[in-house]
Design brief:
The protein has one helix and no strands. It is elongated and about 75 Å long. The termini are far apart.
């Protein structure tokens, strides 16, 4: 009896896992197609995007400026 219960629970878990995979499969295929499309046609990088340039003077770790209080 115990073995039958284990087999039934294992079968139910397998069915639920397969059912979940089957429902998610179209979304997975669309995502894979989109990734392949993006890899084939890389996005143009805009050269005018501002970049961070450090000032060269790091602030001390424990100090808080008077302006921020």
């Amino acid at each position: 009896m115990r073995e039958l219960l284990i087999v039934l629970l294992t079968a139910a878990a397998g069915y639920l896992a397969y059912d979940d995979f089957y429902k998610q499969r179209p979304a997975l295929q669309r995502a894979q197609a989109e990734i392949q499309q993006l890899q084939q046609t890389p996005a143009h990088v805009d050269a005018r995007v501002p970049t961070y340039i450090p000032s060269g003077k790091p602030s001390p770790a424990g100090m808080v400026s008077a302006a921020s209080k």
